[in-house]
Amino acid sequence: MALAIVDFKEHKGNKIIFNLDIGTINRFYAYSIGDDRTFTRNGLTFLENSRFVSPVFGPLPPETLGRTLLEIPSSRFDSRYRYLQLLSFRDHKRTGPALSEIIPVPVTSSPVSLSFSTPNVMDNQPIDTVPFSYQESYSESMGFLDGVLKTVGKVASGVVKAVKVAEPVITGILGPEAGVAVTGVTKLLDSLLPGTEGQPQKIKAQLQNPDTLNQIVSLISQLQNAKAAPSTAKALSFDGYSPFPGRVMMPPEVFDHMPSLMPLLGRSLHPETVRTISSGPMRGRVLMGTITQGALEAGKHFPGFIRAIADELNDDDPALIPLRNSLNGREREYHRQETVRLHFSGIRPQVTGGSSRVLYRIDQDIAFPLVLDTPRPITRGTVQLLVKNPETLEVLAEQKYRVEDLRSGPVDGMFRLGREQLRSLKPNEEYLICAVLTWTARSSRTGNKKRLGTSTAVLVTLVGGYIFERLEGVEETFALNDPKEYRPYWHKIWQGKFTDDGQRIALDCKYYYVLEPKERNNARMETMLHMDARDTSDQSGKLKTGMVLSPQQLERLLAWISDKPRLDNEEMAALACSEFRDSFHQLARTQVEFEGDEGDSATLWVYPEVELRRVVLKQVMDSDANGRVLELSERTVYFPIPSVARFLGTSS
Questions:
Q1: CATH number at residue 410
Q2: DSSP 497
Q3: Per-residue pLDDT tens for 634-647?
């Protein structure tokens, strides 16, 4: 079999040793050394900028079975040209080539002298040091499928408990979709509902809804199977390094079965929001919160549901934060009436960022006309208009209105959120706008008063003058490799001393670049270092750190490295959105190795190469009296974004 496999083995003097395996068909080989730029041809990836290409070696004797050691002088590698690729052939004429993966080579540092003594304009930029808290503060959750399972499971358990308590009353009124929140989690009921043993027939008998049961069981089965499959993510290419996950999307096999979930979500979410959920992509936590909103509202069809589900939320599982916030929020408890439907009128989506979105202005009053479908008049009631964080379901703004003499058709009144109420919200972010109609009626069975209600919700984006659309190509690339000129972007991430002659120190390094719109200055994260505790002359360890970048400082850098126009305040506000921030985040990973004698010291620095990227924004050209955005046009601006992290070792 023709192979081309190469692995780093060790540093040995002034040589670097690699293990080779080219199989038993090809007996000749060559290698090339280059930087992190690559190109793809016929599905194969090659080094684009090779600094050194070796002659063809071989043939290997048959008894080696294609395995041997490759020795390369250390001088052929440096901090930039440290990528190796192996090729194998059947003969000296390079017939029948096989190609290895491109591997980064840990390079032993050589002494480099750095001077920071000369002042420059950028020295006026303050830079802070902050604790390393990247995973807790910045990462997009990749485990939201578990959250979906937990949320729907809790909703299901609450519904079934409510059904059990009120079974004599409920049995005669269950409709074909009333049990959606329960039946979709049959495989979870064994642990949630003692006595059912998770048997579909028992749940069918309770809820009298076999068709919906079979649909949702199919969906949940797909969700459970998808837990083991890696989620896909959209992220910028970070050449030569591991990509950082940005915008999370549900796996295709889950999307294929999303229609089974639509009867549940369609009861309380606007059709445009349901369409967005089923077509994607959405950020994982927004998707999670929106599904929770729909499932929780649908569960209110069952008397006693709120009390029943409250019993399910007695732990601190962060996946259940949306449920807890919704139950502990400002919404009044009510018994949902599925025969009465409330709708937002005149919702008009716009295509931006590759998906359909409902856009409203954040810098003016916004209004939401309502339409009601009801089989009988409602004498008087209350409309509660809420703005919720779609990730946590926390209520951020609220307005109440008294309504009277409600019949099918447009609801009299203007349901408005004022500009002052919107002032605390962030431009170019998504929010759930929820309308809840409640009224009182007497029970025909007991004569007691009870609160009835219905609701609807739509996912909207509140925009300023511009909204982020997409990233396009690269105008120029700049290496911020001058420590005098670009001091705020240099980061000393490690310093150590050698205790023995000929000692080696190897570090596995992770370095993060993250964008934080709230920060006015760049900040270096503290270094988290874990060294191997074994008492040997050679040491190895793992290191992680990074830099929090301020959009304002990057915008200043734009003027420092190019003649492109500066961005105004509205354009900068468009780049503060979650989509741009998530696409900006980058992770670099590399291995470095230092060698020195007793008393020597070494230091590891990181500086970035930045790409001047074309950023396409959409400008709001027209909106109506209700604040709905009606027309957009494209505008291109330029912004520097890190593309490569350069690691530089120095010796004192």
A1: 2.60.40.10
A2: E
A3: 999 999 999 888 99
Give the DSSP per-residue string, 390-416. Answer: TTT--EEEEEEEEEEEE-SEEPSS--E
- At 357-369, the pLDDT tens digits run 999 999 999 999 9
Name the strands in the sheet holding 67-73, side by side, starting at the edge strand that comes first in the sequence.
2-12, 15-23, 67-73
Look at residue 219 in the predicted model and tell me its pLDDT.
Answer: 40
Cα–Cα distance, 382 to 645 (Å, whole number): 57
Contact 158, 191 (CB under 8 A): no
Q: Report d(CA 44, CA 41) in Å as an integer.
A: 5
For 98-203, strand residue ranges (E) read 98-99, 103-104, 107-108, 128-130
Question: Do 616 and 633 fall into the same domain?
Answer: yes
| Mean pLDDT, all residues of the chain | 77
Q: Is residue 112 part of a domain?
A: no
Distance CA 291, CA 146 (A): 13
**Contacts for 110 with CB less than 8 Å, ≥ 6 apart:** 649, 651
Q: In terms of Cα–Cα distance, which of 496, 429, 443 is closest to 650?
A: 496
State residue 291's pLDDT score.
Answer: 81
Residue 652 tokens, joined: 């004192």
Q: Residues 184, 272: one domain?
A: yes
Q: 0.90 cut: is pTM over it?
A: no
Nearest alpha-carbon partner for 505 in 390, 436, 439, 596: 596
Q: Please check whether residues 497 and 637 belong to one and the same domain.
A: yes
185-194, 528-537, 572-581: lowest mean pLDDT where? 185-194
Q: How is the chain split among helix, strand and coil, in percent rounded to 5?
A: 25, 40, 35
- pLDDT computed for residue 77 by the predictor: 85
Q: Residue for token digits 């500009």?
A: 419
Instruction: Report the C-alpha gap between 266 and 273 in whole angstroms.
Output: 9
Shared domain for 51 and 199, answered yes or no, is no
Same domain, 506 and 591: yes
Tokens 């009277």 label which residue?
404
Asked if residue 438 and residue 315 are part of one domain, the reply reads no
pLDDT bin (cut points 50, 70, 90) of residue 456 is: very high
